[in-house]
Design brief:
The chain is of the alpha+beta class. The chain has 4 helices and 6 strands, in the order ααββαββββα.
Length: 147
């Protein structure tokens, strides 16, 4: 039986909560291994939870400088590939302390239903780099400080 959308929504609720808390370890636990992130500019796979956590944590300084206080997801599309594999298009909105949108960005995820629950194995960043650059420009944040 395919993964139902309620479980997918609960999974991304957990993911959003970990992002809001800047909890890299909690976010890393939501990933399967190896986990791969790919964008137009970057492709990389991480083989361990420690590496995953460190990679996630490295982006938090930038998000804090942009004023991120909350992350909200909107599931845009779900496509079952098998009973245990699903692709999910998610629109993330990152909000500041006043609940104003800092940036909105889309990702496509490949999730697998493992024995211990859903995990991300692939995340495709569709427009995050451009969206973050616009947000940084609007907020006067120098992204060159982050490599």
């Amino acid at each position: 039986m395919a993964i139902d959308e309620e479980r997918i929504a609960e999974f991304f609720d957990q993911y959003a909560a970990a992002l809001r808390e800047f909890d890299a370890d909690a976010t890393a636990r939501l990933w399967g291994l190896p986990g791969m992130i790919i964008t137009d500019e970057f492709a990389g796979a991480l083989e361990s939870r420690a590496d995953m956590s460190a990679g996630l944590a490295s982006s938090y300084a930038m998000y804090r400088m942009l004023g991120l206080e909350s992350a909200v997801h909107e599931i845009r599309a779900v496509s079952a590939l098998t009973d245990r594999l699903v692709t999910v298009r998610v629109r993330w909105s990152y909000l500041d302390a006043d609940d104003e949108v800092i940036v909105t960005t889309d990702y496509e995820y490949l999730l697998r239903d493992d024995a211990d629950g859903l995990h991300v194995y692939l995340a495709v960043g569709i427009d995050e780099a451009e969206a973050l650059q616009r947000a940084a420009r609007d907020r006067g944040v120098d992204l060159d400080l982050f490599g």
